[in-house]
Amino acid sequence: MSQKIVLACDICKSRNYTTNKTEQERTNRLQINKYCKTCGIHTMHVETK
Questions:
Q1: What are the φ/ψ torsions at residue 40 (nearest 5 degrees)?
Q2: CA distances to 1, 23, 29, 43 from 33, in Å
Q3: CATH of domain 2-48
Q4: What is the DSSP string of 8-49?
Q5: Which residues pair with residue 1 across a beta bridge?
Q6: What is the rounded CA–CA span in Å between residue 41 and residue 19?
Q7: Which of these, 18, 4, 16, lies nearest to 40 by C-alpha position?
Q8: What is the torsion angle, in degrees rounded to the nearest 10, for the CA atoms of residue 8, residue 19, residue 2 and residue 24?
């Protein structure tokens, strides 16, 4: 079973992306380098609670 999570920009805290996380991946917080529309650059996006 997968869980829906939201990714937020590390700089401006804007919530830009959603993704799914599997049961095995739930122990660590997901961090992905993605493009932020608000900042206009690639930034680190982290999983929100």
A1: 85, 15
A2: 25, 22, 13, 5
A3: 2.20.28.120
A4: EETTT--EEEEEEE-GGGGGS--EEEEE-TTTSSEEEEEE--
A5: none
A6: 20
A7: 16
A8: -70
Using alpha carbons, list the distances in angstroms from residue 22 to 25, 38, 48. 5, 28, 16
Structure tokens given for 7? 């990714």
Q: What is the pLDDT of residues 2-21, one digit of tens each?
A: 889 999 999 999 999 999 98
Are 2 and 20 in contact, with CB atoms under 8 Å apart? yes
Q: Residue ranges per domain, the chain?
A: 2-48
25: left (phi over 0), alpha (psi -120 to 50) or beta: alpha
Record the pTM: 0.82
